[in-house]
Design goal:
The protein is an alpha+beta fold. It has four helices and eight strands; from the N terminus they run E-E-H-H-E-H-H-E-E-E-E-E. The structure holds zinc ion.
Length: about 150
C-alpha cells in the first residue's frame, strides 16, 4: 500500500484505489490486509488466477506482512462475497480467478498454471441427462495441456 503525502493530504496510489473500490463493490470493509491482497489481485486492472501460495509469495514481495492463514481466510471471504471464483483443478489444487464470469480454462500440466481459454470458441451442444430431481449447478471446462515433445 503506497501512501504519499502531498501538501498535508494523503494521496493513495491508483493500485490502492482500485483495491478499495473492488472491496467496496462487495461491501467488504477495506482492512489493511484485504487491501494488500486486493492490490496484488486487481491493482493493475488485469484478471489473474492465483493459488493461496502464489498470492502469499506475491504479497510477501511487496513487503506487507500477511500470514498464509490470513491469505486462505481472505480468499474464502472474497469468494463468499462474489469477488473471486474458485476453480478446482484436482482434489487438492484450488485456483482463485478474478474473472467471475463463466469461461473455460487451460491448465498447463508442466507449470501448474491456469489461464483463460477463448470462450467464444467453445461450443457445448449436448450435456448428459441429469438424474431425476437434480439440476445442473454449473459446468466447468478445464482443458489440460501438455507441451508437445518434438
Ligand atoms: Zn479464468
Amino acid at each position: 500500500m503506497l501512501y504519499e503525502i502531498k501538501k498535508g493530504r494523503a494521496v493513495i496510489s491508483i493500485k490502492t484505489k482500485r483495491a478499495i473500490d473492488w472491496l467496496s463493490s462487495a461491501y467488504l470493509r477495506p482492512t489493511r490486509q484485504r487491501i494488500a491482497l486486493a492490490e496484488v489481485l486487481v491493482g493493475d486492472d488485469n484478471h489473474r488466477h492465483v493459488t493461496a501460495e502464489s498470492l502469499f509469495d506475491s504479497v510477501k514481495s511487496t513487503g506487507d506482512p500477511v500470514s498464509l492463514a490470513t491469505v486462505y481466510n481472505t480468499l474464502a471471504a472474497f469468494c463468499d462475497a462474489g469477488l473471486l471464483q474458485e476453480v478446482t483443478v484436482d482434489g487438492s489444487r484450488s485456483y482463485f480467478d478474478t474473472n467471475t464470469h463463466d469461461h473455460p480454462h487451460f491448465y498447463w500440466e508442466d507449470t501448474h498454471t491456469l489461464t483463460d481459454a477463448p470462450a467464444h470458441q467453445l461450443r457445448i451442444t449436448q450435456l448428459p441427462e441429469v438424474p431425476e430431481g437434480a439440476e445442473i449447478g454449473s459446468v466447468d471446462v478445464i482443458i489440460r495441456l501438455r507441451r508437445k515433445t518434438v
